[in-house]
Amino acid sequence: MTHRQRLTMIAVTVIAALGLGFAGAGPASAAPRAAAAAPPVTALATPVTGTADNGSFAGTFTPTTFTTQGDKVLATGVLTGTVSDVSGAPIGEVTRTVSMPVTVAAVTCQVLNLVLGPLHLDLLGLVVDLNQVHLVITAVQAAGNLLGNLLCAITHLLDGTPTAGGLAALLNAILALLGQL
Questions:
Q1: What does the CA dihedral 13, 15, 17, 22 come to, rounded to 10 degrees?
Q2: pTM attached to this predicted model
Q3: Rounded to an integer, what distance in angstroms lies between the CA atom of residue 48 and that of residue 75?
Q4: Sign of CA dihedral 41, 47, 48, 54
Q5: In tens digits, what is the pLDDT along the chain, a chain of 181 residues?
Q6: I need a labelling partner for 56 at 20 to 30 A (CA). Which of 74, 129, 147, 150 fits?
Q7: Strand 72-84 vs strand 119-123: parallel, antiparallel, or unpaired?
């Protein structure tokens, strides 16, 4: 394996390990897998960088389609960029179609939004004046946020359960719409 091939493999492995972050989507129903990949929508190009002991990679990943594998959503797209040695001198260009897992970014749920108007109490000579109070409690759903996960789950009890297929279908529809612009 040449030095260039090794750097390319390191870059692709690092990128695949990092995955991509996409905002969470609401409930959706399962949908069939897309038949053909759409042309890349360059507005969705995500910068990708990586380093190794013997060089670095800098480029972009542009998703073309979303698919499912079990209960996971995968983004398939075009990875383009430059592989450089330790001194920063370019040693090769990369243009490959790759698939990587999509991770859902932290989701927030509004648990309580309470607005109390101004209050004036006169209790046997004790006067209490209170201006407007606006109390907002938001739960953040993410790994390790036990209370946030629990409160978001309770908040969405009556919603449908999102599926990987439904999320992939929704993301493909968005890509198709952006491709028409």
A1: -160
A2: 0.47
A3: 14
A4: positive
A5: 454 444 444 544 444 444 433 333 333 333 444 444 445 555 678 898 988 788 899 999 988 988 888 878 888 999 999 999 988 899 989 899 999 888 766 678 888 888 989 989 998 999 999 999 899 988 888 778 888 888 877 776 666 656 677 777 777 877 877 777 6
A6: 74
A7: unpaired
